Amino acid sequence: MSNAASSRLTGAAFVTLLLTAFMMGANHVAARTAFNHGLDVLTAVTVRSVVTAGVVGLILWQQKVAFQVLPQQRKYLVAVGLLIAVQSVCLYSAVARLPVALALLAFNTYPLTTALWARLLYGHRPERAVLVAMPVILFGLALALDVAGGPPGGGGAPPRNPTVKVPGYTAYS
User: Fold this and answer.
1) For 125-157, how does the pLDDT look when each residue is reduced to its tens digit (9 = 90+)?
2) DSSP 63-114
3) Are 71 and 104 part of one and the same domain?
């Protein structure tokens, strides 16, 4: 099999990715609806976490995957759990404060943070395309979030504060 043929995305893989993206988007729209009806962020994160753990546990049980945690993995398991909790609270806090599309747009800047950490920790130089795309992405995000506060003269809405997103996408990276 040629290299090009082996790297193609199969129909099943495409449908799986599409379904995953749909479910993630629907999850955040449902969270926004719940927030509009008075649900608080911690309750939403807790319900999402319990349901996710249940579904993953059911899949593992159905596949008969043995669950064992090695002693050296235990301390990292707690750290990973805390990072996921921070990321979830920050993401849902943003969804509660911003329109869903803007919250997800801000959250999906995590590849920029990943490129930054890869450079700082491993000395990996980002590709030229990434370096060109980074300022464009950040400029577009700044426009979408209206971080400048609208047009001069005070005619715009108050600026949206995206600071809750920084810990969220950093924890995700």
Assistant:
1) 988 888 888 888 888 877 877 776 655 444 444
2) TT------HHHHHHHHHHHHHHHHHHHHHHHHHHHS-HHHHHHHHTTHHHHH
3) no
Q: How many domains does the chain contain in total?
A: 2
Between CA 18 and CA 78 the distance in angstroms is: 31
Distance CA 111, CA 119 (A): 12
Residue 75 counted as domain residue: yes
> 79 with 135, same domain?
no
Model pTM score: 0.60
Compute the Cα dihedral for 103, 108, 110, 112 and give only its sign.
negative
Can you give the C-alpha Rg of the chain in angstroms? 20
Report d(CA 10, CA 17) in Å as an integer: 11
105, 144 Cβ separation under 8 angstroms: yes
